[in-house]
Amino acid sequence: MKQRFFLPALCLLAAVLGAPHGRAQVLDPALGISTIPLWPSGAPEVAGADAADLPTLTVFLPQKGKGTGSAVVVAPGGSYLGLASNLEGRQVADWFTSLGLTAFVLKYRLGAKYLYPIPLEDAQRAVRLVRSSATSYGFLPDRIGFIGFSAGGHLAAATGTLFDAGKADAGDPVERLSSRPDFLILGYPWLNAMQPSGHYITYCSLIKTIPPETCKLDEQKYTPSLHVTPQTPTTFIYSTTDDGTVPISASVNFYNALIAAGVPAELHIFRHGEHGSGMGAGSAALDQWPGLLEQWLRDQGLLTPPAKP
Predict the structure, then answer these.
(1) Does domain 19-299 bear CATH number 3.40.50.1820?
(2) Which of 5, 65, 209, 236 has the CB geometry, 3.0–4.6 Å to 112, for a possible disulfide?
């Protein structure tokens, strides 16, 4: 019995340590979970040595032999002050792996200590790093999505509109890769985060150390609907009409910008539903949205394993 359990764990450990540049650290060999620092030699602009200062990806693998050739980066929300890493991270990753996707839960830097655009830089690096890991983890480098909830939804949309093709002369091979996700999924996204909007919260109202003049610049540069182009990835959006935390109009504006640019998009607006419902939170109506997402993924061909050569 000992041999039966020990050998698979050892094989997994060897596989994880064989990931690109040996960056992965096994968290639970039995469950196939590992974590990867975004920068193996230390993240730029780090202001301390606490765990919160170290942006990472936690890897959740699909069942062996069940991979679809697709992967997704998961960005939990939390107002850019914290991370709902279970509700909008672990639970989401487990759902994706059940469909055969490899899921990477992103821990990005937060708060007044790491003001925007540092969270965006972490997200862009995450896409590049996942792309560099495609061969090791068994998915295609052009089938990498980015899903985010609330503030993570704003981060996902910013990543999908403010990407670059990589720096061909970079010394770090990861930095030579594109930061563009191939598809976006936004759950009740806080897309107006940088815009003054009446009684709704804003990034500046929560992180009070930002001078007002800086907030004005952020409003233009980091409002995703202002940067949609035909190259913006195909997008799935889910939100609720009576969300009291973020306005539904922000999701509608982003959707309209996508359509105007000719980007394939799908928007689902539920009549009722609290902000922060994750994969549905037991609501009879909201529990339906993962099924809608699964159908959308299937329509994109993202749940179909690539043909073998």
Answers:
(1) yes
(2) 209
